[in-house]
Specification:
CATH topology of the largest domain: Neuraminidase
Strand content: over 45%
Largest sheet: 5 strands, antiparallel
Structural class: mainly beta
Length: 405
């Protein structure tokens, strides 16, 4: 979440309820803020309870070639503390103004700075140097470095897709990271964990270094724990159904948290699995080191099987029902999950290790540590631009948070 300072103009010709002393700046009493996100603008003001405000007017201007074009004005009556504008486009630039009225007195317009709403932030993780940066979604400029991280080795999104949770080797718990440099440490006792996932019912799923799956409730009390055979490599949660999947070199286990009991069932045994992804149609997508991709139902039955030479990573785009894949042969694929057609791109990558998809506009981000770049492709696979940063020489993991937390 980021705030934008607004400049104010105060009417001074007479004593009025907004300026009782006659020489005070309105901005000292009323502090409007804008918070821009992927599909709306939150506009609110504070410290107005001492003023007898009858109404406020919020006006939106679109910025074009340095000029302001008024698009709409909204009148708000009574002691309203803010306004949310949802009719926006994230590829446009805007300015907002607000004015307040009380009886015969009306303030001048208080203008915002120019803003450009956007889909969020791209987090780039360099696992070789154990460094994590947050980049703005447009232009990939460095937004901030993150505090309180010494040795981050596992990162994931929270359920709301707004912040990132990180495990640090030197902290007994997890750290919630916000794009505005805030961090919230959550201690979990005296045990370190190597994986974490968030369940829609408030359950926290964790894997410790003894390959034990642990479930905690909202009060961080252990409600379930079980040793898992093999080395646990993946922990996935279906946000729609609540199913928890634990993948190890022995196979895949399915955990169903219930009201009074928690069921545990091995549904698939295979020691050669390379990765696991959940598709939103109750399917598991399983990759293998030799480039094979199997689709399984939640009972562990194989539905389909395909070959993608050199398959490294994959990401499912639910907005287009499309699967994006990267290959260690420098290629990018996408597969239409309805027609099953596959399109291949050779975009000049060396080793595209991770891929992320923006569901708002279909843009695709690819991290290539061998080239030291993060590249942006459009929804058709055409490369738009590539970026590099000396602080992340080997970008290897990408996470897109849709709303700046």
């Amino acid at each position: 979440m980021f705030f934008i300072t607004l400049s104010s103009c105060t009417e001074r010709a007479r004593v009025n309820p907004f300026d009782p002393g006659g020489d005070e700046d309105l901005g000292k009493f009323i502090s409007p803020h804008l918070t821009s996100s992927h599909d709306r603008v939150y506009f609110w003001w504070t410290d107005v309870s001492n003023y007898d405000i009858d109404s406020a007017v919020v006006t939106r201007y679109r910025v074009e070639a340095g000029t302001l074009r008024k698009e709409k004005g909204v009148s708000l009556s009574g002691k309203i503390s803010g306004y949310v504008d949802q009719d926006i486009s994230y590829d446009k630039k805007y300015r907002y103004s607000v004015s307040f009225s009380s009886g015969d007195y009306t303030t001048d317009e208080i203008f915002s700075d120019t803003i450009k709403p956007g889909p969020g932030y791209l987090w780039v993780f360099d696992r070789y140097y154990y460094y994590l940066l947050v980049l703005s979604y447009d232009g990939m400029h460095l937004y901030t470095t993150l505090p309180d991280l010494v040795y981050p080795y596992f990162i994931t999104r929270t359920l709301q897709d707004t912040v990132v949770a990180a495990l640090d080797l030197f902290f007994y718990g997890f750290i919630l990271l916000y794009p505005n440099s805030r961090a919230w440490k959550v201690s979990l006792g005296t045990k370190r964990y190597k994986m974490i996932a968030f369940h829609p019912e408030g359950i926290l799923a964790l894997v410790d270094y003894n390959n034990r799956i642990i479930l905690m409730d909202e009060n961080l009390r252990v409600v379930y724990q079980r040793d898992v055979s093999g080395d646990i490599r993946w922990l996935k949660v279906d946000r729609d159904t609540g199913d928890i999947f634990v993948g190890s070199d022995a196979g895949i286990a399915r955990i169903l948290p219930g009201v009074s009991s928690i069921s545990y069932q091995m549904i698939y045994t295979d020691s050669s699995m390379h990765g696991i992804l959940i598709e939103n149609k109750k399917k598991l997508l399983i990759t293998y080191g030799q480039g094979q991709l199997n689709a399984l139902d939640y009972g562990g039955n194989i539905i389909s099987s395909q070959d993608f030479p050199g398959l490294v990573s994959m990401k499912y785009d639910s907005s287009k029902n499309r699967l994006w894949l990267t290959s260690n042969r420098g290629k990018i694929f996408f597969q239409d999950m309805d027609s099953k057609t596959v399109k291949e791109f050779c975009s000049g990558f060396l080793y595209p290790e991770d891929i992320e998809v923006n569901p708002r506009n279909g843009d695709v981000y690819v991290a290539d540590p061998w080239m030291g770049t993060v590249c942006v492709l459009d929804s058709s696979g055409e490369k738009l631009k590539c970026y590099s940063n000396r602080k992340i020489p080997y970008p290897s993991k990408l996470i897109l948070t849709l709303i700046g937390g």
